[in-house]
Amino acid sequence: MKKQLLSIVLATGLLQGCLSDENSANSENSQLSLSITDAAIDFAAQVNIEINGIELHSNKGTYTFEFESSKSINLLDLQGSQSASLLTDETIPAGEYQWVRLMVETATITLTEGLTIPLTIPSSDQTGYKLVGGFTLPANGSADFTLDFDVRKSVTATGTGSYKMKPTMRMVNNIEVGHIAGNVDGSLLAANCEADASLAVYAYEGLDATTGDEGSADAPVASSLVDENFDYEIGFLTQGNYTIALTCNADSDDVEVAGDDLEFVHTANVSVDSKNTASFNFELSVPQ
Predict the structure, then answer these.
(1) Could you give all domains of the chain from N- to C-terminal order, each with its CATH number?
(2) Over 50: is that where the pLDDT of 132 sits?
(3) 125 has a pLDDT exceeding 60
(4) Which of 54, 76, 187, 256 has a CA-to-CA distance to 84 between 20 and 30 Å?
(5) Which pLDDT does position 173 carry in this prediction?
(6) How confident is the model at residue 241 (pLDDT cuts 50, 70, 90)?
(7) What is the 3-state secondary structure (H, E, C) of 109-170?
(8) pLDDT over 60 (residue 276)
(9) CB–CB of 162/186 below 8 Å?
């Protein structure tokens, strides 16, 4: 199969790496580490991609890292603060970069009922997305970034029994990120949700933010399903203030349809510090 080059939509501004040794002699190179993470979706048991390499483009040229053997990754294994390494301390010319691209050979989805089918990648996406940001690799320094693949935004049903993947990613600097984790009180769920509810927690930038669905102008930055123990974890959030919101009908949220009948039963403000996990438990006694 012909390789498909999936460009990454950078949802941030310019990302700056950190200097590893300010007293060293000047260098035209930098050390780059790059990882990938994701969040779960309720209709799939696995979303597997096979990555053969990475391309990065700067004003000095395009640089390609081809793996000796392809990396097969189930994105749904990389939830919360979990991630998989793609590049580790690779030497690359320092400078400003405009885009980064995954070289993906195949992509499949395994539905919760067990059926595995290929993910269709629209032909327009194989030639590249328009990027809305970039990143800088510092001279004589190092940079450590994570790509949040966000399967909930990237994989959608076509209505004909197949699924398509239009990758939507955000790129974060690992020295600036933290996580949010906690538990949902069963009493809160019993009072607000059906027994077979699709539970998820969404995170929005800012305090008391407007909470919208994935297809709206007020879409969340990231999200997490609530597991069988009523736990959740939203990973790799840039330090700052967030509004988190609990919903019982996440399965009705379609990224391609704005104004879904998504209802939130509880919202709260949480501050995230870099290198730390903020804790928040959704409880029935907390005022709404």
Answers:
(1) 4-168 (no CATH), 177-279 (2.60.40.1120)
(2) no
(3) no
(4) 256
(5) 94
(6) very high
(7) EEECCCCEEEEECCHHHHCCCCCCCCEEECCCEEEEEEEECCHHHHEEECCCCCEEECCCCE
(8) yes
(9) no
When computed from its CA atoms, the radius of gyration of the chain, rounded to whole angstroms, is 19
Q: Which tokens go with 192?
A: 């607000």
Q: How many CB atoms lie within 10 A of CB 62?
A: 12
Task: Say if CB 102 and CB 75 are below 8 A apart.
Answer: no
DSSP secondary structure code for residue 207 in this structure: T
Polymer length of the chain: 288
> CB within 8 A of 271, min separation 6: which ones?
240, 241, 242, 278
Strands 177-183 and 135-137: unpaired
Q: Which tokens is 172 given? A: 């974060």
Six-digit token string for 162: 């197949």
Using the structure block, give the residue that is written with the tokens 């780059």.
Answer: 32
Residue with tokens 């996580």: 179
For range 267-271, the mean pLDDT: 97
Tokens 């940001």 identify what position? Answer: 133
DSSP-derived 3-state class of residue 262: coil
Section 232-259 average pLDDT: 88
Return mean pLDDT, the chain.
85
Look up residue 270 and give its two tokens.
């949480």
The answer to whether residue 16 scores a pLDDT higher than 60 is yes
The tokens for 237 are: 């959030």
Tokens of 96: 């400003």
